[in-house]
Amino acid sequence: MKKLKNEKELVKKAILEGVKYGESRGVVEFEATDSAAEKIEYIYRLLVHDNVIQPIPEDQISQLTMKHKLAIWASKIK
After folding, report:
1. Is there a contact between 1 and 65 (Cβ–Cβ < 8 Å)?
2. How far separated are the first and last CA of the chain, in Å rounded?
3. In whole angstroms, what is the distance from residue 30 CA to residue 15 CA?
4. Single pTM value for the model
5. For 14-17, which contacts have Cβ atoms below 8 Å and span 24 or more sequence positions?
6. pLDDT tens for residues 37-58?
């Protein structure tokens, strides 16, 4: 897994866009007290469920790999 050039900013963008996506679908309401890790995992699983992104093999799932996958997704959003 090669790190992206501006991965931190892309992860932040992915969280913002993922929150909008989940709330617009009406499947989730994020609280201010939700941690970034919880948001990342929920957004990742929602996008996989909706076939927006390809799933990571179960034995390779970690916070790092989910962040990376979301950063790639965010980089493709206009």
Report:
1. yes
2. 24
3. 11
4. 0.91
5. 14/40, 14/43, 14/70, 14/71, 14/73, 14/74, 15/39, 15/40, 15/43, 15/70, 17/74, 17/77
6. 999 999 999 999 999 999 999 9
